[in-house]
Amino acid sequence: MADPVFVHTMKVRDYECDTQGHVNNANYQHYFEVTRHEFLEKVGLNFHQLHLQGIDAVVSKVEIRYKVPLIGMDTFLCTVTHIERVNVKYIFHQEIIRLSDNATCAKAKIEVVNLVNGKLSKPDVFDEAFKEYIR
User: Fold this and answer.
1) How far apart are CA 48 and CA 5, in angstroms?
2) What is the pLDDT of residues 49-106, one digit of tens each?
3) Backbone phi, then psi, for 9, in 5-degree steps?
4) What is the residue extent of each domain of the chain?
5) Which of 58-62's residues contact partners 24+ apart within 8 Å by CB, and which partners?
6) Cα–Cα distance between 89 and 92 in angstroms, integer?
7) Please, what sign has the CA dihedral across residues 71, 72, 75, 77?
8) Could you identify which of 12, 15, 22, 87 might form a hypothetical disulfide with 69, taking C-beta atoms 3.0 to 4.6 angstroms apart as the criterion?
9) Per CATH, which fold does 6-130 belong to?
């Protein structure tokens, strides 16, 4: 694992697993989202407070590469390895690493755009908060 800019530790809950005992694929997206929201808190932003100010960060594209399945009760790290800025998009590069064996379970590229009062925009608040993390 490269030096991530943010790490959040989580644990699989049994109800997140499918019939085969693996975490259902849709739950990985939840893990990635929780981690991005926690990252926002770290940089001094609150997702709900931003919404109340008319600023909404919305996912426009999700690409997840599943590598090794998580199973019930696994403890794992969900990371933000880095952020790219491309025009009005922020691209979050994220990974899920199982703690028991350091296996990379999933990698994601999540594209996020920002709406300010319902219009696509480049809000300064994100540029300022992410400035040391953008590559």
Assistant:
1) 22
2) 999 999 999 999 999 999 999 999 999 999 999 999 999 999 999 999 999 999 999 9
3) -95, 135
4) 6-130
5) 58/112, 58/113, 58/114, 58/115, 59/33, 59/110, 59/111, 59/112, 60/89, 60/111, 60/112, 60/113, 61/109, 61/110, 61/111, 62/29, 62/108, 62/109, 62/110, 62/111
6) 10
7) positive
8) 22
9) Thiol Ester Dehydrase; Chain A (3.10.129)
